[in-house]
Amino acid sequence: MVIPFLWMLTLSLKPVSLLHQAPYLIPTSFELSNYAEAWDAAPFARYYLNSAIMTGGIVAGQVIFSSLAAYAFARLQFPGKELLFLVFLGTMMVPFHVILIPSYLIIDRLGWVDSYAALIVPRMISAFGIFLMRQYYQGIPRELDEAAMIDGAGRLGIWWRIIMPLSGPGLATLAIFAFMFAWNDFLWPLVVTNDPNMRTVQLGLAMFQGRYGTQWTLLMAGTVTATLPTLLIFLIGQRWFIQSIAQTGMKG
Amino acid sequence: MTAMARVRAGWQHANRRGDVSAAAMALAPAVILFAIFNIYPLLYSGYLSVMEWDGFSPDKSYVGLDNYRALVESATFRNALGVTLQYTLSVAVLGVAASLVIAVLLNSGVCGQNIYRLVYFLPVVTSTVAAAVVWRYLMTPGTGYADVLLRDLGITPPNPTWLRNPTWALRIVMLVGIWKRIGFNIVIYLAGLQNIPKEFYEAATVDGAGTWARFRHITIPLISPITLLLVIMSIIDSFLIFDVVYVMTDGGPIGTTEVVGLLLYREAFRYFNLGTASAMGWVIFAIVFAVTMVQWKFFGAREASL
Fold first, then answer.
1. How many interchain CB pairs under 8 A, A with B?
2. B259 touches B242 (CB < 8 A)
3. What ipTM score was computed for the predicted complex, to two decimals?
4. Is the CB of A216 less than 8 angstroms away from the CB of B137?
5. Which residue of A has its CA nearest to B142?
6. How deeply is B87 buried, as exposed, middle or buried, from its count of CB atoms within 10 A (0-12, 13-18, 19+)?
7. pTM, rounded to two decimals
């Protein structure tokens, strides 16, 4: 399972002259020049920045908007609650392929093609996020809300001061899922960006492969670069991540 | 109290507590974003699927079900459906079977379970593009790891051109799909295996059941709801495959890896047949919907939405 990863790592450190040597996993000499070269051959720094902005925006949006909506569904009484929740959940089974074209047309009409807004705004809310946070909130004792209410807190004040601070692990899970999804997304950025300066890391890597198809050492350096952030996040958050996968059966 | 009055009383009660206005504020961003980027596109793609439009010209023309009829008659689309189905079923069946075996082995007291879990999970969190790029390298004829490994094992590579070979390309893409998914299945299986009471196995051992008999008569039947769930989830997911194929083969050679997702993308964004592409989207939706209904039937609405 990990051999392709080790392979990728060694190759990214190999001088080109040793490329065709037997594939021993430990290279005979280490070199970082492939990274520098890949970095020069394509604007990977720019790709990184774009991916970071997109991912940051999506994670922030999901954490705030999903948890707000989840709070309404978990704690507030209002007419049409069940219906609205059902509609949200229902959207989860609509394949993205179906709404791809109209979503692009909307972005185009808004004049958002090649903008961060196009990459971020449509993804700032997810039914999964709402569902996950609602489940989490239902585990927080209502007595806390009631005590705060007696102390004169408003509804949204309760969300912000009582619920949010108690939701650390839930929010972390949501943030990790959102991060993985956003960082690894391919189809949507492919559709809403044309300008090479607006490419994300994943797009940049795919295009890089097209143009430098045979310079494998450079290509692997680019791949390591693209993989690193999710690996780091996963290593940091794996306890929550694997647990919540096992519990909810949700895929990242 | 009549139903109407009860609704009104409930509303007034909620309103008095300040819930309604708070809920309106809390839900506003979600509702607005959903309406613009989920609900409206869904309806609009239904409308587009009965129109003929290139996305630029001011006039669209209504063609009724012609787009759908054309799809049914199109050899390209039928080929794509066939390829997708082959991919989907292989990834679902082989991927789930392999992960069950691995999960059982891991569960039977191999030490360092957490490490293994991590190892199998790495491909799950890697981006498909990165995985596809690495696998493309592994399958480079002559210098790729696959060939070198075969040679080291004393097997002369049959020298297929791998990804450029019509028989091998789809198999390799399937392999990547399975490799990428298997860790997810394993984690779910491990959670399920831990719920099987140890006493069952102990009793069976006392009765003289061997390892195989215990696996066959205890593990498999008790784990079968999870198996079904994983198969269905794999089917839904794999049916929507796009990026592996886009990066590894772009549908080639001679259409042997052309999946419906790729065809839809091309139809819409390279040939600008938005009507046909939208109709394709709805055919995909119908198939995924049917599978989802099976899932609902077996697991109830709640689990289906997970």
1. 261
2. yes
3. 0.88
4. yes
5. A20
6. buried
7. 0.89
